[in-house]
Amino acid sequence: MTDPQTIVTAATMLPEPDRVRVIEALLDSLTPEPDDPESVANAWREEVVRRSNELREGVAQPIPWSQVRAEGERLLNGGD
Prior knowledge:
Structural class: mainly alpha
Order of helices and strands: HHHH
Distance between the termini: 50 Å
């Protein structure tokens, strides 16, 4: 196996379009395709289970919609 620094050094010598292709290939190897419906559904399912468990265990507290909406409006109107 080649040393990662050797690969990086070689990649930086490539023309820009080839470097972009290398970067895209590396990113694709790290994360599932975002448009893959099954991956998206699985990620949402995991998130729903995680949040439900946090609510059930008292780790997280629900926020009323009126408060969330007011905060969103405040931020959209230039609040910090």
